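Final report, closing paragraph on structural work. Over the funding period we assembled a curated collection of sequence-structure pairs, and we close with a single example.
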Amino acid sequence: MTRWLVLAGVVVLAVLLLLTCVEKVPLDRVGVITNNFGGGVAEQDQLAGYVWIWPGMQTLSLWDPTVQVIHLERTARGDTRVNIRGKDQYTTQLDMTVIFRIHREPESDRTLAWRVARTLGSMEKLRDITLSTSNKVIWEVMSDLATEEFYATEKRDQHANRAKDTLQRTLLENGVQVEVLDVLVRKIDYDHSFEARLLEKQLLEQDQLLQTSLAKAEVEKQVTEKIQKETEATVKRITEERQKAIKTLLAEKEKQLRQIEGDTGLYTTEISSGAARYLKEKTAEGNLLLDQGRATGEEAINAAYRQAGGEYLLGKKMIENLEFGTIEINTNLWNPFDIEETLRKILGRAADLGGTPAAKPGK
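Its predicted structure, as stored:
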């Protein structure tokens, strides 16, 4: 029985030790162990997981190794904006943002929260001192700007970068091992009197710009009208020259056409005259040949009639072609049955069969 009681006591003691001596480091945190009875802060960050801590003798503090953001602004809890009184004596209020993180080892990229813990002791103190230091540094750097210069983006960003470098140097000098990643100007509230004066100035500048633009527009209008007149004159001159050139060209073409027509008419006249002359010559030659042919034919016919029997044939044709009216024969003068005598009386010498015919056949 006693043995079981001892065993139960050991189990209870072990559970109590686990509950009191083991602490958990979350995934988004690192732990730093501080030895309360000598030794100070352990020079090593405890990563996420369970860590053995001797109650009363050691303390575990949690640190956020991720990127931290601090806003210098007006909220329900207070106003942390940076109030800048510029060289022109106007007050400008800046809403700023400071981005930083706990310093890391360059080689391993492991956090060095234990170094911050030596100086500040907790994450809340780190944020508080970073906030106060940022407000002071930003005020010192931005005070160099006049109120109007805050409108110049390039110049404003240059001063924000100066504030970042100055803040980094100041924190390291104070033993705060953090990396300042950026300092941003989020919002600018200008002095009301300055805004009224600025609005008046802008209206004046806009009016001057308007008047300048109107003057330039008038000049441009005059230039445009001059160009338009010159263009119209040029177009008119070109049109007149073109019409003149067209008329000259038409006259030249008309002259050339008439010359061509004249040459063509002369050539046609010459051709027609030559053709008429040629036709006349050829007609005369044809008539001559025709007459010669006729003469040759008649000569051949006469030669044929002069051959043996030709005279009889000629006489027969002559008799066949004769037309007589009423013939009265006086039988007291010749015997009508004497054919030769009768023919001689009718035809005269042509009836003489031994003589030359008095006429050609068909005559």
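The domain at 25-190 is CATH 3.30.479.30 (Tetrahydropterin Synthase; Chain A). The longest strand covers residues 91-102. We thank the funder for supporting this effort.
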